[in-house]
Amino acid sequence: MAKTNLPMSPKKINLRWAAFAREYVKNGGNGARAYKKHFGCKTLKDARSHASTLLKRPEVQEMIQREQNAIISLHNIETDSIMNELLGVIERAKEQGNEKNLLQALDMINKMCGKYNHTQELDVRAQGIVINYIKPLQDGTLKKDEE
Q1: I want to staple 47 with a disulfide (CB 3.0 to 4.6 A). Which of 11, 26, 36, 104 is the partner?
Q2: DSSP-based three-state secondary structure for 76
Q3: pLDDT at position 89, please?
Q4: Helix 10-26 crosses helix 58-74 at what angle (to 10 degrees)?
């Protein structure tokens, strides 16, 4: 059967977007992998580009949020209990002088609080640990200043 160039129906698009959102949450936020699985793409570069475009859509962002909320409800995890656990990790890391665990816990708290919404590059160097952050722009893209 020959392929036609007719546009997909909105219902089929929404089903694919929902499948993309589920996979995106399931695989830990890898948009390219989720896009490739549910839409198909020849190259990883194309999958990244298409995933980035799709992730900017408010409908898809809502779907992802619903998937994340469903997981939280399913596992009966409350944000307060996660935050309390992370604060405990921070205290233990400070007591033990474990900067790696301290930085990881702080990073998780910042993600939970939505602190990564603006572009800002930050290098943290402590005892041989280097963490490079390039925060996304509000439209979800990453941009690194040219030198």
Answers
A1: 36
A2: coil
A3: 92
A4: 50
Task: Determine the 3-state secondary structure of 30 from DSSP.
Answer: coil
pTM of this prediction? Answer: 0.47
Give the integer Cα–Cα distance in Å for 10 and 65.
20
Position 147 scores a pLDDT of 38
Q: Cβ(110)–Cβ(117) under 8 Å?
A: no
E strand spans, the chain = 121-126, 129-134
pLDDT tens across 54-70, in order? 999 999 999 999 988 88
Cβ density class 70-107: b for 16+ within 10 Å, e for less: eeeeeeeeeeeeeeeebeebbeebeeeeeeeebbbbbb
CB atoms closer than 10 angstroms to residue 108 = 16
Per-domain residue ranges of the chain: 10-74, 79-134
54: three-class secondary structure by DSSP: helix
Tokens of 12: 């089929």
Which token pair is 55? Answer: 């992730």
In the block, tokens 């040219």 appear at: 146
